[in-house]
Amino acid sequence: MYREYGPGLIRFATGLVGPNDAADVVQTAVVRAMTSSGWEHVVNHRAYLYRSVMNEANSQHRSTMRRRAREMRTANPAVEYPEEVRPEVLEAVGGLSPRQRAVMFLTYWEDLDEAAVAERLGIGRGSVRRHLGRGREKLRQVLDE
Amino acid sequence: MSNQLDDRIRDLYAELADSAPRLPPLPPLTAPEKVSSPWVRRWPVLVAAATATIVIIAAGPLLLGGGVFGTGDEASDTTSIAAAETTEAPTTTAAEGATETTTVAAETTEAPSTTVSTGSPFLDAVQSTTVSTEPVTLPADVLAAADGLVVGALVEFVWPDDGSTGHEFVVMVVDNGAATMILGRDCRVESGSPPFAETGGGVIVHGQEGPDISDVRRCTPGEEVEPLAEDGQAMTTALIDGRPVVAIGTESSISVLDLDSGATDILATFDPSVETPTAASYGDGMWMISLLAAGEPFNAGGPTRYVFLDATGAPLDVAGNPAPDFSAVTATYRMAALTPNGSELVFVEQFADLSADVVVWDLAAGVEIERYRVIEPFTTPADDAGGGQRFVGSLDASDTEILVNVNIAFGAVAPGGIVRIDRTDGSATDVVSSTEGIDFQVASFLDRP
């Protein structure tokens, strides 16, 4: 299962946290998912693992950034990417929230429709529309500059 | 144009996906070890904390002696006792020792398709996407104490999908003894202001999807949560000529959003390289804006000054405007609120020993008329269980009461709580206090009495 879904999860995580942390996020998420008490009851393992990766990325993002940002306003939302990725790409994606990144990645890389993205991430279709709309608008602003 | 944009975004993600690293080997899956992980070992503690020990600290001195919430060590002791009383694995009932509970079912929305129950109704309730799907069970004494308040709490919980841990901010409205969970996930508040209040059936909260991305939302149970304004922080709400408005602060401005018309007017602008707004409050035709000097830490330091504006944003010269003693450079004055009649300014002074007072200032006379100690001095790191500074996170004031939230900076989830000060007799009551796993950070009056 890991070999089957792993490459896709790695790309997904790269879209969320960048390639530097993608492997760690996937490893942690998969181990947690597969060792959780609810794993044996999971019907859609693929969707479950994608949500696990998104949650792990969210937790990583929040644990390091949220509190400091709220209290000190010194948060740096930049995501670290290797130098081979063009700076404008980094700037564009770095301005999205983790959930926006997830929705955008699944929409534009995996070509999933709204319903499929909602199912994969376990969120409502309205939320997908909202994140997609806001993500597109943010990328449009950056790409038009 | 749209297709062009989509193509460019696809190219962008293709480039990003190409940078993905190779699939790492998966570590051995050792389920038994996971079951005995530190997090799971804390289960009884968290369940007890969540379901039974969201308690009012009835024992012990509150103000003017002994501290409001005690030291972190004391908080740990409380949690340990709760854990000892909970001998079984998590269940969906209140732990032993819980007071009578009231269960309130919130409106429902999309539930996770696969849910691993935490065993705690309270924590389960915050695991839905936006609005709780499970009943919220809180001890009756907590409901009674928090009646008439909007309470925000940071909880540590297990993601329903995979059992991983995370933090979540939830917002509850307690009205007539019933608690309604308004929001979980992504709806955050900035410290330093009462971020929401009841306005025409809705609750204004500050949503945050990323560290620098924020918006202002009006939330009602069961409704889709949509931003009212982006790039801002809900600092306070008010009724102006019968119209509900919310003051939205950014680094450089204060705007007033009319909730009926949706119109937004900029009330005042500031140069963020000089100072930035930290709090706003409205009373009887007058706005008070608290300004923090640029470069000063938000949760400490100073100086801060107050400016007063009329409803149109024109400056008002308030003769009794307090001038904080900036020689006490460690004192902070960033938290402040006007009483509804606009005659008093209530603000926080925090000192070098990290003690803090709430001060009531008569604006007409220009004198201090009341002072309440809300944080006792502490001098050693051991006194500070959260590893950070204890400070007043939010403040709301009326003519008869003051609501103060104390929490700790830079902890993960650290002891904090809410105290209600009765100005008529100087007494204070703990509304809620944090236990491990739940950190009450924000409170405001539902309707300022």
Give a written overview of the molecule.
The complex is a heterodimer of chains A (145) and B (449). By secondary structure, chain A is mainly α. Chain A has one domain: PhyR, sigma-like (SL) domain (Butyryl-CoA Dehydrogenase, subunit A, domain 3), CATH 1.20.140.160. Chain A has 7 helices and no strands. In chain A, helix 6 packs across helix 7. The longest helix of chain A is centred in the middle third of the chain and has 28 residues. The N and C termini of chain A lie far apart (42 Å). The longest helix of chain B is centred in the first third of the chain and has 17 residues. About 29% of the residues of chain B have low confidence. Chain B has a domain of 216 residues: TolB, C-terminal domain (Neuraminidase). In chain B, helix 4 packs across helix 5. At the A-B interface, helix 1, helix 2, helix 3, helix 4 and helix 5 of A face helix 1, helix 2, strand 4 and strand 8 of B.
CATH architecture name of chain A: Up-down Bundle
What is the total number of structural domains of chain A?
A: 1
**Runs of chain B with pLDDT <50, length 5+?**
31-136, 188-201, 381-387, 410-414
Globally, the shape of chain B reads globular
Percent of residues in β-strands of chain A: under 5%
Order of helices and strands of chain A: HHHHHHH
Category by helix and strand content of chain A: mainly alpha
Q: If you compute it from the alpha carbons, what radius of gyration of chain A comes out, rounded to the nearest whole angstrom?
A: 15 Å
Q: Please, how many helices of chain B?
A: 7
Oligomer kind: heterodimer
Total strands of chain B: the figure is 27
Uncertain spans of chain A = 62-83
Helix content of chain B: 10-25%
- The CATH architecture designation of the domain at 230-445 in chain B is 6 Propeller
- What is the strand content of chain B? 35-45%
Q: CATH topology of chain A, what is it called?
A: Butyryl-CoA Dehydrogenase, subunit A, domain 3
Overall average residue pLDDT of chain A: 74
**What's the CATH topology name of the domain at 230-445 in chain B?**
Neuraminidase
Q: Which structural category fits the helices and strands of chain B?
A: mainly beta
Q: Biggest sheet of chain A: strands, sense, closure?
A: none
Global Rg of chain B:
23 Å
